[in-house]
Amino acid sequence: MAKVSKTKKTKKKTKREWDEGLPALNRNAAGIDVGSAEHYVAVPGGRDPEPVQTFGSFTADLHRMAQWLKACGIETVVMQATGVYWIALFQILESYGLQVNVVNARHTKTLPGRKTDVLECQWLQKLHTFGLLNNSFRPTEEIQVLRTYLRQRENLVAASSTCIQHMQKTLTQMNVQLANVISDISGVTGMAILRAIVAGERDPDRLSAFKHGRVRASRREIARSLEGNWREELLFVLEQSLELYDLYVLKIAVCDQRIERHLKTMTAKTEPERSSDPAALPASKQEPRLTQGPPVPHYGSRPDEGRRPASADCADHHFRGRCGHEPLENREAVCLLVGAVSRQPD
Known about the structure:
alpha/beta; elongated
């Protein structure tokens, strides 16, 4: 019996001292458990009578946390990527000269050892002391700004597409089968007809007069598709959806201007050999910029050319959904700038 008890004690001791023999790579390390309202911070023992403290999420609290860490002699800090709550904390701690590391939460769960008897911030501090955590990629400031603009643009494009779906659904409920004769109700013909309907026009023959010359369907086919039951409540929904669509298109244009202005301020890390003719440079060496000219067809400038194959519609929708309202003239250069950003924690 004594032998069995000794074996159990040996195993228990092994679990407790799993980190023995590991060199301490970051002796001045702190761990932070990020939350929405409170942040728990742990520093090495002996740096403060209370090595674990709690700070609020207000800006003044974050500055007080940074000052406390500097007073404790902390040089590097580690935190997990928790939603977007870590971003403001990251920026403030970095402004105080601290080396801030953002790690993936999955990396801390796969390491050996017990952390049930300590706080999360103490566990992070311990792992970072022994160099067992990998810092996540974080792009430069100018790329972060560009990514914010591009994400906002993507949200606006998705919202405008939702408005088109609402208009399509409303037309179907009124049995107006316009989508069966033209490829896209947001094209030149479709938008002209929708605006006329909202303005009060109900005559199918007059509505079909808005047909663009490149539309394959005849005026007779379009007029037959526009014979529906004009319900007042559905016309109200159609009107509001069209107004929201126009608002999103306007906001997308403003966002495009802001993106182009920011792209002009970005400087390349390595200056290429400039030619007297910029067009003679390879596409990857040219300055990324948005094309000038009419808006993309998806937002009401393309004449509808009748029904296309489903594969073509899907491919066109994928291109517009990924690239947005106005195509990039040099997509490769911008993709190189923001492609790796998706690997950064949010």
